[in-house]
Amino acid sequence: MLKPRRKALAPYALLAPGTAWLLVFFVVPMYYLAKMSLEQGLFPLFTFEWAWSNFSDAVSSYHTQFVRSLEYAGLATAIALLISYPLAYWIAFRGGRWKNVFLVLVIAPFFVTYLIRTLAWQTILSDGGIVVTILKHLHILGSDGRLLATSAAVVAGITYNFLPFMVLPLYVSLEQVDSRLIEAAGDLYANRAVSFLRVTLPLSLPGVFAGVLLTFIPAMGDFINAQLLGTPRQYMIGNVIQSEFLSLREYPTAAALSFILMGGILVLVLIFARALGTDRLTAGAAP
Amino acid sequence: MITRVRRHVLDVYAVLALGYLFLPIAIVIAFSFNNPLGRFNYTWSGFTFRNWLHPLAYPGLGGAIRVSLEIAFLSALVATAMGTLIALALVRYRFRGSATTNLLIFVPMTTPEIVMGASLLTLFLNWKIPQGFGTILIAHVLFNISYVVVTVRARLVGFDRHLEEAAMDLGANEIVTFFRVTLPLIAPGILAAGLLAFALSVDDFVITYFNAGTVTTFPLFVWGAARVAVPPQINVIGTAFFVIAVGGMLANVLWQNRRARTA
Amino acid sequence: MSSRYTRADFLRRTAAGGTVLTLPGLLAACGGGSKSAATTAAGGGTQTMPKSMVFSNWPLYIDVNEKKKTHPSLDQFEAKYNVKVRYVEDINDNDSFFGKIEGPLSQSQSIGRDIIVLTDLSALPARMIELGWLEKLDKSAIPNISNLQPTQQHPAWDPNREYSLPWQSGMTGIGYDPAKVGGEINSVDELLTNPKLKGKVTLLNQIFDTMGLVISSNGDDPEKVTDASWERAVKKIKKAVDSGQVRQFTGNDYAPLLAKGDVWACFAWSGDMVQLQIDHPGLKWILPKDGGIIWTDNMLIPKGANAYAASVLMNWYYRPEIAAEVEDYVNYICPVVGADKVLEKTDPAVAKNTLIFPTQEMLANARAFDVKAVANLKYKKEFQKLIGA
């Protein structure tokens, strides 16, 4: 048995390598970025002036894009969850020996660079393609309707590209559910729906929490789907930050926008965690 | 009869969902056999094997692929190792600073890539660290850690501690218990996290761009080339990666089956 | 404060202990900005070739021997001058690349490259000259500069070609599918107002392309942009965007859309059309009757590089036979006089292609864009707002 003193140090020892990496390569740059967000001036002369107005200006200029990002990311996450949960369930419970093969299949799209898979989607959803033609026949789309260059295309793009981030954590959690628990529920007269809702689903919540985080958080900052699949009316806050940083070279504004985005996401994550009940999701029972 | 149908609903769904995932991949594979006369692989012009016979036709493409694979493998390895340790600490222990650590894990995921990439570059410049393979690796490990922690943690949270207790009751010390009981049981979580990290790394563009110096990775090559050409070779490479990855896993499964049978 | 006091300087000093906010700190900071730039290879004066050089360029912008996977023009240069040239294709967007190199340059560090290539109309070469981040060309090593196209010899932002030499040019005009459009197009106004084209039109997301063409279509001069001419053009575009006429603002990702028929007419680059027309001979490209835009990617020598070696390399590419080798593959617009004569014998199809060797008439109808307008923050912001960011 470890002596009590050494036991108390155990978590810090485990944390050390990873947190050191994050402190050096993330926190330090963030400190500089924070300083930048309070500077004013024109490229390349920026001076530190406690310019809190950068933040208020950023919000007032770009609140539309912030809200829009929330809508798109939220929608994409919800759809991804709906699509991914049954798939992850199937892989976990029915995948058998081939589970790992299916996992690799799920991340396979990432091997084909983003640009190429988006080109493929543009071919599939082309104005003259099969999908649009069928939708027009079914009157879901008007006669001059299209799928590309619409909000639908942007949300669909985000959903598709983040699907693996939803499937994998869900799988990880579901695979751990002991099938004997489900058997036991059945023995206690629960039908399949009830045993799913009362046994499997709650046990898979850590996976749901993780999947939602890994999808929603990066989706909020996404810019590439709106850029390739959207019109100016679909541009998200990620596009704004890109343009402020690269084209306008207004580094303080870009930095302020980034912090507002980061802060906003963290607040949402906290609310979500509270809603699901954090302790269950981020800490296991003590031994 | 109804229960039979119901049993298969999930199977049908899984096939549809996988189909949805693969629809664009099928197009990518199809277009790897395309024979455009110009430099753009946008519309179908005829079938050919020449792209597969000369997959590395462009100078620099081969090098870019190698760099991407090396970085993906290394960064996934390092990030998975460090991230798993952090996940263990966060789930298993109550300690001062756990809330801050949680924050430290989440915040990198919320940071827009361009800002993360550019500020990391500023760090490298200030500390006179030359940009190249090493800095790309540092950056990839950096963004991968958070994803690994979140994924492994989902596994650890549902972990049944009683199994460990039982092992220790049977005389195993903590280290043995960890390696013989805990690790194998959380292995699927670690593998999934590793796969995610690999995938993230192999497809990263923005952060890599700022910190690559004069080194080129596969996504950098593709995005750069796209201004003047989208050669079918890129489809070939993507297909090859995919086939090798899936094939590798399949081979592993078959080998495991063999072992199980002859055991 | 000295004009060389940059963000990076500031970050460094505050990292060293927050001394800047005291008066001595401020003075030290101001004085420190004028460090000399000589870091790596000799900046000026010496005229010897080094053992190796680094040439950064846009991808697929140089000749390629697909079988041997080499760049013949570079190999020939290496053989003749006994230098190893490391060719790096890491420039794919002007602003992004600039964002990558401004850090070291603002701290007077070398960026490890001897030649870089940036687009004139992005206003970044002009900016770099202003900021003192470029070395002057060693003209004594570039006798072939006399082969430079006359129209390229005196650009507004570098009137005596002291810092730059064109690598390739390109024109921005209108690309369209006559079959889908149901006829010919010859003006920007048609693109923006013809109701038959609603939702089938894309414009470019670069300020000099789109604003240049639209300002020209109003009869104004794109090379001298005024507030009034700017506003007129913005209004026109906004109308077309709001009505749904304009589908998207794209980079070169208009090309697949045009090829697939999702877009019927768009602002397009000459070089793209050369490639698209190979697989889709029906597609057409024209310079609008009110004027098109011509841009040039220029070779530049960043501070800290070996200016002599870079100049020798530039001179090499101004040999007509070498320029012809490059042009045969790249198919943009060649800045070297005489290359078309060489190609008439070896690849007449390329020599006769007016998208690669435009006629004098075409060149007269294509103008540059006012780089001051590109650098103007107010204009930039308005444009970004227009395209959605």
Describe this structure in words.
The complex is a heterotrimer of chains A (287), B (263) and C (389). Chain A has 13 helices and two strands. Chain A has 287 residues and is mainly α. Chain B is mainly alpha-helical. Chain B folds into two domains: 1-57 and 232-263, no CATH class; 58-230, MetI-like fold (Orthogonal Bundle), CATH 1.10.3720. Chain B has eleven helices and no strands. Chain B has helices spanning 2-31, 50-53, 61-92, 98-110, 113-126, 133-157, 161-169, 174-203, 206-211, 218-225, 232-262. With 389 residues, chain C is of the alpha/beta class. Chain C has helices at residues 7-15, 23-31, 72-81, 94-106, 124-131, 178-181, 188-193, 207-217, 227-242, 254-260, 270-279, 307-316, 320-330, 339-346, 348-352, 360-365, 371-375, 377-387; strands spanning 52-56, 84-88, 116-119, 164-176, 201-204, 246-250, 265-269, 284-286, 292-300, 366-367. Chains A and B meet through helix 1, helix 2, helix 3, helix 4 and helix 6 of A and helix 1, helix 3, helix 4, helix 5 and helix 6 of B.
Q: What are the defining features of this structure?
A:
heterotrimer; B: 263 residues; MetI-like fold; 77% helix; C: 389 residues; D-Maltodextrin-Binding Protein, domain 2; 2 domains; eight-stranded mixed beta sheet; two-stranded parallel ribbon; 18 helices; 41% helix; disordered N terminus
Produce the secondary structure layout.
The complex is a heterotrimer of chains A (287), B (263) and C (389).
Chain A: H1 4-37, E1 39-42, E2 45-48, H2 53-94, H3 99-107, H4 114-124, H5 130-137, H6 151-174, H7 179-187, H8 192-203, H9 205-220, H10 224-229, H11 237-247, H12 251-276, H13 278-282
Antiparallel strand pairs in A: 1-2
Chain B: H1 2-31, H2 50-53, H3 61-92, H4 98-110, H5 113-126, H6 133-157, H7 161-169, H8 174-203, H9 206-211, H10 218-225, H11 232-262
Chain C: H1 7-15, H2 23-31, E1 52-56, H3 72-81, E2 84-88, H4 94-106, E3 116-119, H5 124-131, E4 164-176, H6 178-181, H7 188-193, E5 201-204, H8 207-217, H9 227-242, E6 246-250, H10 254-260, E7 265-269, H11 270-279, E8 284-286, E9 292-300, H12 307-316, H13 320-330, H14 339-346, H15 348-352, H16 360-365, E10 366-367, H17 371-375, H18 377-387
Parallel strand pairs in C: 1-2, 5-6, 5-7, 9-10
Antiparallel strand pairs in C: 3-9, 4-7, 4-8, 4-9
